[in-house]
Amino acid sequence: MKILYLGILLIFISQPIIAQFNHQNDTSEPILRKRLANSQEGVDKIRIHLALGRAILYRAGAKLETIDSAMSLGTLAEAESRKISFTEGVINALVLKALCFNQKNKKDIGFKVAQQALALSKKVKNNNGVAESYIVMGQYYPFYNPNGLRIRTLYYNRATAIFRKEHNMRRLAAVLEDDAELCFLANKKTEAIKLLFEALNVNKVIGNKAVQGIYWMIARTSNGLNDYPDAVKYNLLAIKTAETVGDSTLKLCSIYHNMAVTYISMADFRQALPYSLKALQIARRYNNPDYITTVAFAAAGAYTRINKFAQALPLLQEMEGYAAEDHDKMIATACYLTNLNYDRQFNKAEVYAQKLIKQLAKFSPDDFNAFTVPYCFLANYYTDSRQINMAYYYANLYAATIPAGARTAVTNKSIENVYYRLDSIRGDFRSAFKHYRNAQRIKDSVDNLTKAYQISFLQIENDTERKSDAIDALNKQALVKDNILKRNRLIQEVTIAGCVMLVIITILIYSRYRLKQRSNALLVRQKSEIDQQNVALKHLVDDKNRLIGDKDMLLQDKDVLLKDKDLLIKEVNHRVKNNLQIVMSLLQSQSGYLQNKHAQEAILEGQNRVQSIALIHDQLFRTDSATEIDLVSYIAELVYSLNYSLNKRGDKVKIRFNVDAIMLDVSQAIPVGIILNETVTNALKYAFPANRAGEIRIVVKEIEENIMMQISDNGVGMPEGFDMIKADSLGMTLISGLASQLKGDFDIHTTAGVTIIITFPIEVANTARVAVGI
Fold first, then answer.
1. Model-level pTM greater than 0.90?
2. Tens digit of pLDDT for each residue in 260-285?
3. E strands of 386-443, at which residues?
4. How far apart are CA 230 and CA 330, in angstroms?
5. Domains annotated on the chain, with CATH
6. Residue 248, phi then psi, degrees to nearest 5
7. Range list of β-strands (E), 61-117
8. What is the mean pLDDT of the chain?
9. Nearest to 620 by CA among 549, 550, 556, 568
10. CB-based contact 374:334 (threshold 8 Å)
């Protein structure tokens, strides 16, 4: 049980070394500086400046002065790029500057600079610049906030889709790691593993062998779900890969530390200790306080638990020496307390317990993260020292401090174990047995989750191996084809060279023969023929120049007509949007004169239907496309509108959506919008009566050449005896009719709420059609 408390604190203080491997540069900083010294002014030098800026910015343990150095390189690259009108350089320089502002915790400025990069990228149609801008903009939103994590994930997903489309495999590999990290933070562990294995395959395609960071993330995820065999396996792969590629940075420190944490979780402290000491050696070499503090505690805990507290004490003192902030000092005190408590030195532990209580008084009561671990450790200490009243006091504080939404299986199990021990000591065996059963139930639940994860992991691992084998087979086929092409090219070149030589020899022989046979009369006749040919050629050249001039005029007229057409389409969409806004205003005004509640609701539904169409025309007006809309942006705006106008219960009914990056033709977008409007409206009105809480989910996926749209809720479902065919409902009639209009299949399920599924084929946008109506 004391291992559990050690695990809690390891999680609590290990945040600084979570996923610091992304955004790697392909070239090291020394090599870039050498290239910079030998480079000449121009595009190549600008690119070296930008690469060097990124290398400096993501240097392990980067400080304010190094961030300023990277910022200076970005500013210089931007100025030089603008001088020579190198747009790509301007975009990447803006992205680098935005990253620097984010690193300096000036994220508002970073977000604005990233928006400038995004606008310029869209203007010049630089899709990679758009993706890089999305990544930096996503960093504005905090990952520790659920809403911020969701928005950041959305931005990163957009960037990933662009890198896939552009076949930018190097950036795709890095962003896949970022996506996996976000899934890990969102507790979507299986999705994180899928992305990490995909990143392994992408790195294999591009020939990048430095994948130790990916193996580390797989091991960390497995360890978090108690899948210790896979955690050990991939930790070992990470260590082997790091040693193979010569990595001795803080990345290797994190890998060694993660292996130690895995063995600590397995209560194998002797196995954990060597890896902790290796990690500590690297952390000391880089003099990084966060790493030193984290790794030193793990090593101290391992020493204490193999009854070598004398070796643990210097490590605890080292931690205390690096503690500058109140939070760090509190952690150091907690580490002393738990190690002394385990070593049964209760008198010394009492001193640190009192010190910890005084330190807790400096924190706000709202900051439950600051109190969770100290309360747990105090309850554990007072239990071991048989100060039962104090133990109950801090056990109650520990249980009450953590909000229900923030509790994990580890904390719940810890709380139940604390009460089980206390009730057992007090002799209240009925209550103790109750808490023991609760702890066992949590353990069984965690074990089931681990088994499910292991099954998914094996499936993902097998799928990845098949894809890897397929990649190897394709590489071999490509190599064979490349050899065949080289051989055929060589044969072709030799044949052509032989033919050319033969032609040259033949011409020379014929020329010699003709020179001997020609007479002066023949020379005169040839001269006359040449003169006639020159005159005819001159006529042909004049005709050709005239045709080219006519063609240029026609092309210019065509460009003018196309620009006029685009402007006309945008103006039509703008006016249609404005007219629909007027209709909505008229409906709203009309509802003010109605006393009948059902009539007012009908008008509100009409307003929302019109709004779903107006949003499409608004997006067509605001984007470069005249016939297609970005389905992600459209659904986000539509959901926000419906949530604002109909959801009167605030956070009790949540609307979530997961939409692929799809550009949809307007002829299909309008029926899709009306269907979403009807289903979400019905769910908000009828699915959650009596102020009931719930969730509405919208999922839109592109499957081959079809789109699958699923709208579901976990509400009360349809009334008994409901028959969709006999239902006299305008909403159902609209949904059924619009599904037919989309040439799709419409299905509805009423188990555990209501789920509506519509599958329809994707239509290719017809650029000749003006998108102004339904």
1. no
2. 999 988 889 899 999 999 999 998 98
3. none
4. 34
5. 572-761 (3.30.565.10)
6. -125, 25
7. none
8. 80
9. 568
10. yes
